[in-house]
Specification:
By secondary structure, this protein is an alpha/beta fold. The chain has two domains: 72 residues, Helix Hairpins (Orthogonal Bundle), CATH 1.10.287; 80 residues, Roll (Chitinase A, domain 3). The protein has three helices and seven strands; from the N terminus they run βααββββαββ. The strands form two sheets. A five-stranded mixed β-sheet has the order 5-4-3-7-6. A two-stranded parallel sheet has the order 1-2. Strand 3 and strand 4 form a beta hairpin.
Length: 158
Amino acid sequence: MKRSPITVKGAERLRAELKRLKTEERPAVIKAIAEARGHGDLSENAEYHAAREHQGFIEGRINEIEHRLSHTEVIDVAKLPQTGKVVFGTTVELEGADDGVRVTYQVVGEDEADIRQGLIAVTSPIARALVGKEEGDTVEVQAPGGVRSYEIVAVRYE
């Protein structure tokens, strides 16, 4: 099976969430279920059913994170050869050719992509256009509103 790339920060975030779910959330929901059981008739006990539903969510998320972590390859961007080219994990500063607006993205794995935080999936159209390019290059990206041109202002290995 092919392993998905993930940055060190992305793997740390997943491990931290897994630890919190196992050490805080899981014990709390088990306690809530036990308390709700003590209230008697389970068929009409909304607290019990809500706690069981939450337990199902927690267990599902734990399984999902464990599966993701077992099928990823952690890539430390700082240890990559600093060739100046855009590769997985690099942070890229772009300037719009049309409007001069600057944006910064980090190319990450699909599991950690979050455009609001400037994290774009390596499989996204913009990342595919950027990979292999370097500072000073101009790239064209097919965006929902049409083709956009960007100049690569900086490539950082952070």
